[in-house]
Amino acid sequence: MKDAFGTPQSLLVLGGTSDIALATARRLIARRTRTVWLAGRPSPELEAAAAHLRGLGADTHTVAFDALAPESHEAGLGKIFAEGDIDMVLLAFGVLGDQAGDERDPLAATRVAQTNYTGAVSAGLVCARALQAQGHGSLVVLSSVAGERARRSNFIYGSSKAGLDAFAQGLGDALHGTGVHVMVVRPGFVRTRMTAGLPEAPLATTPEAVATAIELGLRRRSETVWVPGALRLVMSVLRHAPRSVFRRLPM
Amino acid sequence: MPAPTPPSTRTVPLTGWGRTAPTAARLIRPRTYEEATDAVRACGALGARGGIARGLGRAYGDAAQNAGGAVLDMTGLDRVRTVDADAGTVHCDAGVSLHRLMEVLLPLGRFVPVTPGTRQVTVGGAIAADIHGKNHHVSGSFARHVLSLELLTADGEIHTVRPGTPLFDATAGGMGLTGVILGATVRLLPVETAWMSVDTERATDLDDLLARLAATDHYYRYSVAWIDLLARGASTGRAVLTRGDHAPREALRTAGWAWGTRARGARSAERDGHPSPLEFRTSRLPAAPSFVPEGLLGRTTVGLFNELWYRRAPRSRTGELQRLATFFHPLDGVPHWNRIYGRSGFVQYQFVVGYGREEALRRIVDRISTRRCPSFLAVLKRFGEGDAGWLSFPMPGWTLALDIPAGLPGLDAFLDELDEEVAAAGGRVYLAKDARLRPELLAAMYPRLDEFRELRRELDPRAVFVSDLARRLSL
């Protein structure tokens, strides 16, 4: 069960090797979290992540999960929920893609969309139903500021996150009053493996800062969390900027 | 005859009084013992998520929530069955509130044996949390005054449970996890009036407070100290003590009352401006608004309130006549006062440390004061002998209770540190108020926890009775 501060005792991470997810798990393990499920494609990295969290004192399991195989989600995730209550699901999988390459290769672009959006719709709905049945739990969805308004430089990734963001908001409304809490997290540029080698955007942040914001959001039962918080203001300005201006912004 | 309609059920989100950690459950409202039995049978059939009884929802934490399962709203079982005025006992349903009991009993010259800071608790809840009041140092906790209770267990049977049996001791303070309490027979206190004779004094710091309480508490049936936890330095722990007893008729006469033989006729008494001395009157202010901005109760506002509250109290006053409700239940005057903490809600932290552990108490008060937790409802009192309930909270010693907004940054880690201090001093925190204890510490605080778990396993192998509290702390 979650405590009065929204800190979960059990955590399921979808996308178990995500830097942000692991920073969040570390933070929560330092509080109340004792059981962690890391779901992802079987890999030495996933096992290493599990071993690392185990070393921090959590009872950690790995489980095979592929965002691109939605037909397997119901059975695979169902097994985890059958083992006991999950107080928090962190939906953290996603790929950035390679914008220039993907524009030339529609199939590669589709893979980004399928991972970030279609996979999340399927996994999100499966988890939402399980959380609703247990009458409690938080579904934390890692969206992105890129989804707030698609930019020339990464609109394939941005559009997939926009879809995910809209889906998660709607899901949150659908689950209002069921004891299940959906929280959309919109980080800006986060220094992770995913963004390694990319030019850094203004207001860049770290996985640890995102983890801190997630913990605070759980406590406040927030519906939307921006990391850093200043992005809320920045993006609300950018969202209303005229296309002709927005197009020319150096982003 | 038409078939009785089944009790209504609907799925609703529920929280405790602290308004943290909402979870959804099917709410069932039985109105008879038979309907309650059916409801418990249905809980058993629901699968793994079971059911738990809920009264008026004044437990601060998650004791009366059951995520994904059933919650039995017991307020439909609200009959006062028999009052034996000579013996001074009442037999009533578990869903009867202490407020209702006071309305019924005061005109007969009887009062409930133990009342907490609110009248809005049910008899069943009072037993399940084994509540205490300002008279604990004299009268012990609620279950001490229970002569017998009817318990509906997981097998769907109703048992009459008497004190001195393991089932009674597991149920008193057992947070509803041994079964559904359906009714109880409770021993009452004789009173002559519905008024309290109250002495008020100020203590300038914690040492002064402890000394005054230790030296003079036994002169009073009721005793409590409001403590200013925002005061620092030399005035750390300054407090206002309010202590008293039920006022005898004589005290009212001295105060200028004249009711004589006409007192029984309410109308003529009203005409005189003096109602019956046993008339139970309460006052209500407007309810707290449903939306309160976050952070309204910060250090400045609460600090200001505390300053005024302390200054307003007389240095020393004796024999003041107060209405029962004013003395016992000041918060009941503001309906929904729990909303004032805004959306994040609040946690109430109540612990006890034994006599001889005053050092631990001082350290904790120091830490709270230094940290500047904005708490304006901090209460210190002395407990007397503990009772037999396995998970019953009171034990001989000092107990401190305080409200803190849950949104305060770093509060979770801070309270964990206080828990460590409490556990190391052989103390414990109160489960009826808990919403955040680290499960690992529970066994140290409640040495009879294993017996409790063992009895539950035997009595309820399918875990028909379960709550969020039970899940969170593995009760």
UniProtKB/TrEMBL annotation, chain A:
Keywords tagged on the record: Oxidoreductase
UniProt keyword annotation of Oxidoreductase present: yes
Top-rank lineage group of the source organism: Bacteria
InterPro entries recorded: NAD(P)-bd_dom_sf (IPR036291), Sc_DH/Rdtase_CS (IPR020904), SDR_fam (IPR002347)
SUPFAM superfamilies: NAD(P)-binding Rossmann-fold domains
NCBIfam families: PRK07904.1
Family stated for the protein in its record: Belongs to the short-chain dehydrogenases/reductases (SDR) family.
Stated name of the protein: Short-chain dehydrogenase
Organism name: Streptomyces graminofaciens
Automatic annotation (TrEMBL), chain B:
InterPro entries assigned to the protein according to its UniProt record, in alphabetical order: ALO_C (IPR007173), FAD-bd_PCMH (IPR016166), FAD-bd_PCMH-like_sf (IPR036318), FAD-bd_PCMH_sub2 (IPR016169), FAD_lactone_oxidase-like (IPR010031), Oxid_FAD_bind_N (IPR006094), Vanillyl_alc_oxidase_C-sub2 (IPR016171)
This protein's record includes keyword Oxidoreductase: yes
FAD-binding PCMH-type domain mapped to chain residues: 20-191
Alphabetic keyword roster: Oxidoreductase
Tagged with keyword Oxidoreductase: yes
Superkingdom per UniProt: Bacteria
Name of the protein in its database record: Decaprenylphosphoryl-beta-D-ribose oxidase
Organism annotation: Streptomyces graminofaciens
